[in-house]
Amino acid sequence: MDTDLALTIGIVLLVLAVPASLAAWAESRMPRIGLVLLIGAVGFGLFALIASPEGYAPADIPGVMLGVLARLVN
Length: 74
Description:
By secondary structure, the protein is an all-alpha fold. It has 3 helices and no strands.
């Protein structure tokens, strides 16, 4: 798997985990879906950071995500 794709999937899962966790918290129930999404986000993120030969700087993330989106559209 491409590390740019893994990083993008991890960020998307992290963004989805936040509202799922907040909704579960607001309804006074355990955030199971939020936890699963968070674990997946951490897994994809760690894979991307470990497997990438040069690593990622915070300034690189928007370009990486746009590159993955451009490959998806084409």
